[in-house]
Amino acid sequence: MSVLLTGSAGQLGQHLRSCAPADVELIGSARKAGDLPCDLLDSEAVRDMLDQVRPDVIVNAAAWTAVDGAEDAPDLAFRLNRDLPALLADWCSDHDAILLTYSTDYVFSGRPGRAWRENDPTGPASVYGRSKLAGEQAVMASGARAYLVRTAWVYSALPGNFLTAILARASQGQDLRVVSDQVGSPTWAGDLARASWLLLQRHGAELQRPVPVHIAGRGAMSWHEFATLAVAGAVADGVIGREVMVEPIASAEWPQKAARPAWSVLDCQRYEQWTGDKLMDIETSLAACLSQWGRLPC
Ligand SMILES: NC(=O)c1ccc[n+]([C@@H]2O[C@H](COP(=O)([O-])OP(=O)(O)OC[C@H]3O[C@@H](n4cnc5c(N)ncnc54)[C@H](OP(=O)(O)O)[C@@H]3O)[C@@H](O)[C@H]2O)c1
């Protein structure tokens, strides 16, 4: 199976590379590095790359991921998060290839009283969420064999995510103030990458049309609870020298440009039924991430 991985230098992209199954011929593409450099905003260049590689599967880990930045750059966010998956899905449709592309809990808002299921009504509250939903809709309309993998609160030991940001501050002895009124499913990029490959391996042959599927850490906790666990675990593993205070605050005390959902818990039963796999619970995956600290995923 030949797989073209876009966004191969990103947080998830690096994890996908590091745990790619042995029978996968993986071709990575990144903006400047990787096997195939490509600016994914250039649709002609993307089509040329696809026609050159002719992959059996495209895994699209590239996106506009700056949630607050999207409020000021909606055009770029929509080009990356709507137009790119649309182009990839159309190519897959024409070439009987499979697309696996990622979406987000931010397509939801409100509180259903349980974890979000794939077919629940969407209602994004930010430009980023709207751009990702528009990407989902374009892929659904393509009719391609496509997984729309919604995930949430992705973290890793790589720079540029919530976990590394709070541990960087804690390592300098700074106390933390962390919101306690947003609850979600923190997801380790390592477990998401492993599960993505398993989905393709165990269910890909049955895939006939575009489908959303949730993959996230098992369980639910607030950012504050997650930060508290992370600091304690990081001290125990020697990632940081000593404990710091982790103060719970309300979202209103931490103003951000883009609105975030207060409830971001994803129901992952569809994934688990289709693959027979059990996703890692949040505590276990956090411990796994911390235990591999300082070692690059690939
Ligand atoms: N991180 C989260 O908390 C989270 C939560 C829910 C869903 N997701 C989704 O999960 C997927 C993976 O996210 P991630 O955390 O791995 O994000 P990431 O680390 O920001 O990776 C995104 C990648 O896309 C690349 N990219 C952006 N614009 C490009 C362009 N014009 N040409 C080529 N490459 C370009 C970036 O390259 P540069 O670095 O060169 O810009 C980067 O390597 C995304 O679809 C995201 O929306 C993430």
Topology:
Layout: E1 2-6, H1 11-18, E2 25-30, E3 36-37, H2 43-53, E4 57-60, H3 69-72, H4 74-95, E5 98-104, H5 127-142, E6 145-151, E7 154-155, H6 162-171, E8 176-179, E9 183-184, E10 187-188, H7 189-203, E11 211-214, E12 221-222, H8 223-236, E13 246-249, E14 263-264, H9 269-275, H10 282-291
Parallel strand pairs: 1-2, 1-4, 2-3, 4-5, 5-6, 6-11, 7-10, 8-13, 9-14
Antiparallel strand pairs: 9-12
Helix pairs in contact: 1-7, 2-4, 4-5, 6-8, 8-10
Give the structure's gist in a few sentences.
With 298 residues, the chain is α/β, with parallel strands linked by helices.
Explain how this protein is built.
- The structure is a single chain.
- With 298 residues, the protein is α/β, with parallel strands linked by helices.
- The chain has a single domain (2-291), classed as Rossmann fold.
- Helix content is 39%, strand content 18%.
- Strand 1 (2-6), helix 1 and strand 2 (25-30) form a beta-alpha-beta unit.
- Helix 1 packs across helix 7 and helix 4 packs parallel to helix 5.
- The chain starts with a strand and ends in a 7-residue tail after the last helix.
- Residues 7, 9-13, 30-31, 39-41, 61-63, 65, 80, 102, 104, 151-154 line the site of NADP nicotinamide-adenine-dinucleotide phosphate.
